[in-house]
């Protein structure tokens, strides 16, 4: 019985061993066949590493391949700098690198605002619509932005500083898009003398010379050349190397400036109307004197006449209400008909005077002062209005008419009037002429101090310039 128990026990143990081996083998097979992706390599590697580690050092710390390595305790260990600071037996960890932000593009017009109002926008004393109006920023005019206050910006432009609602301004890149539309590019000569050429080549003809520090409107800007408006119909190319280009905008106008401008325009219009009326009166008086017959003594416009020379000749002196507008007259030789060079004489009288004598008497400073009243008024090709628009010769003709002196219509014809003088000796009231390809095409009035006043071009209008802003061709003295 005892033997049977032993045999039965042994059989049970053997059966359990075989059954256990079968289960283990089956489980291993199942795991291998149903494992998740990547787990097989990890588990097998872990088993191999554990086995190898246990064989060499049973207490070794073994980590998964993807786990971070323990911090090095040796400052000279590989992977760390030799002079790394050690704290608590380990090298101090370097802070993570700060992310570098890409800088946003910046416009050079970030602090410039250009008015996009339909006509103008009011500049106010405080940032609200109930505040006092200090001035106006007209459409296309520009202002420097001082600061932003909510929906308003504080601006400075010309003589005006105040607040404008930001919605009426184009700022930054939006302003840059309006440069060609509202801005005027100006080329300032940065050399002593610069040649203005007919085309973009140093082999082309030189139209004129312009002097250093003078500024001219840019018509077109190319890579190496700039086309500029000199004056009137004189346009040409200059080397870009010898000019500095800037952009000019109109500025805000204060309430006081606007009132003064209106007053000046009204006064100039009244003066022009008076000059026209006086000219007509003198012309009518001259016509009446001529119709009385030659050889008689005539009183024209209250002026006295005296005979001179032999019988049959007479000398008429007509005067106007403006003393500076009176002119002197000389009778012709014995037996000739009367020579009437009155202040109301025709342009033919003036243009025919090429003998080198002056046309009239007067004060050149008064002529210059009168001409300066119209600075800022428009240039209009073919025009003669001092207020509504004139070209260069129309300007000089209208100015001298005020003083009873008739000049021909064109600059070329005016260059034949009066007495020829050197440009260096020019004084207030003298005419300065400029030429293109040897032909006179522009005239200006000397105002003294080496400067002239003239109707320059459509952009500049009536303005003042250095007498040598371009090379003068000749000068004529009209009054003695």
Give your account of this protein's structure:
By secondary structure, the chain is an alpha+beta fold. Helix content is 26%, strand content 27%. It has 9 helices and 25 strands. A 6-stranded antiparallel β-sheet has the order 20-25-21-22-23-24. A 5-stranded antiparallel β-sheet has the order 8-7-6-3-9. β22 and β23 (451-457) form a beta hairpin. The longest helix has 37 residues, at 255-291. The protein starts with a helix and ends with a strand. The relative contact order is 0.07.
Which secondary structure elements does this structure contain, and how are they paired or packed?
Layout: H1 2-34, H2 39-56, E1 86-87, E2 90-91, E3 112-115, E4 120-124, E5 133-138, E6 142-149, E7 152-157, E8 160-165, E9 169-171, H3 173-176, H4 179-182, E10 184-189, E11 193-197, E12 206-211, E13 215-221, E14 225-231, E15 234-239, E16 243-248, E17 253-254, H5 255-291, H6 347-351, H7 364-372, E18 384-385, E19 389-390, H8 392-402, H9 411-414, E20 419-421, E21 431-436, E22 439-448, E23 451-457, E24 461-466, E25 472-477
Antiparallel strand pairs: 1-2, 3-6, 3-9, 4-5, 5-17, 6-7, 7-8, 10-13, 10-16, 11-12, 13-14, 14-15, 18-19, 20-25, 21-22, 21-25, 22-23, 23-24
Distance between the amino and carboxyl termini: 167 Å
Please indicate the percent range of residues in DSSP E strands (runs of 2 or more): 25-35%
| Coarse morphology | flat
Overall pLDDT confidence: 76
Query: In angstroms, what is the radius of gyration?
Result: 48 Å
Largest sheet strand order: 20-25-21-22-23-24
What are the segments in which pLDDT stays under 50 over at least 5 consecutive residues? 18-47, 49-89, 295-355
Number of helical elements: 9
- The helical percent reads 25-40%
**Main beta sheet: strand number and arrangement?**
6 strands, antiparallel
């Amino acid at each position: 019985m005892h033997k049977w128990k032993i045999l039965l026990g042994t059989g049970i143990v053997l059966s359990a061993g075989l059954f256990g081996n079968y289960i283990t083998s089956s489980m291993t097979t199942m795991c291998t066949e149903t494992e998740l992706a990547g787990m097989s390599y990890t588990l097998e590697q872990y088993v191999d590493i554990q086995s190898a580690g246990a064989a060499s050092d049973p207490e070794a710390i073994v980590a998964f391949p993807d786990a971070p390595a323990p911090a090095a305790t040796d400052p000279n260990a590989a992977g760390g700098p030799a002079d790394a600071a050690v704290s608590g037996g380990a090298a101090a960890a370097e802070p993570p690198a700060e992310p570098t932000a890409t800088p946003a593009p910046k416009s050079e017009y970030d602090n410039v605002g250009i008015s996009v109002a339909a006509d103008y926008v009011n500049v106010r004393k405080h940032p609200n619509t109930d505040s006092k109006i200090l001035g106006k920023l007209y459409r296309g005019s520009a202002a420097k932005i001082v600061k932003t206050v909510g929906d308003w910006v504080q601006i400075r432009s010309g003589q005006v500083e105040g607040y404008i609602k930001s919605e009426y301004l184009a700022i930054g890149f939006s302003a840059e898009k309006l440069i060609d539309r509202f801005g005027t590019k100006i080329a300032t000569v940065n050399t002593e003398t610069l040649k203005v050429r007919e085309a973009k080549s140093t082999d082309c003809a030189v139209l004129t010379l312009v002097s250093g520090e003078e500024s001219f409107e840019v018509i077109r800007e190319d890579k190496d050349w700039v086309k500029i408006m000199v004056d009137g119909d004189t346009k040409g190319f200059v080397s870009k190397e010898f000019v500095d280009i800037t952009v000019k905008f109109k500025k805000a106008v204060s309430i006081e400036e606007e009132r003064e401008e209106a007053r000046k325009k009204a006064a100039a219009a009244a003066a022009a109307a008076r000059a026209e009326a006086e000219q007509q009166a003198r012309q009518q008086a001259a016509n009446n004197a001529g119709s009385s017959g030659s050889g008689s003594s005539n009183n024209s416009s209250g002026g006295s006449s005296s005979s001179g020379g032999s019988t049959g000749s007479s000398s008429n002196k007509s005067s106007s209400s403006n003393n500076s507008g009176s002119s002197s007259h000389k009778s012709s030789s014995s037996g000739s008909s009367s020579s009437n060079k009155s202040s109301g004489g025709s342009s033919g009288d003036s243009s025919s005077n090429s003998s080198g004598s002056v046309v009239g008497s007067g004060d050149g400073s008064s002529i210059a002062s009168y001409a300066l009243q119209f600075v800022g008024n428009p240039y209009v090709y073919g025009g003669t209005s001092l207020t509504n628009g004139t070209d260069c010769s129309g300007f000089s003709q209208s100015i001298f008419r005020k003083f009873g002196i008739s000049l021909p219509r064109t600059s070329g014809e005016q260059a034949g009037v009066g007495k020829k003088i050197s440009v260096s000796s020019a004084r207030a009231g003298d005419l300065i002429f400029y030429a293109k390809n040897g032909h006179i095409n522009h005239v200006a009035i000397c105002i003294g101090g080496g400067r002239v006043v003239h109707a320059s071009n459509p952009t500049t209008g009536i303005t003042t310039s250095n007498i040598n802003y371009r090379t003068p061709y000749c000068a004529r003295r009209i009054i003695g």
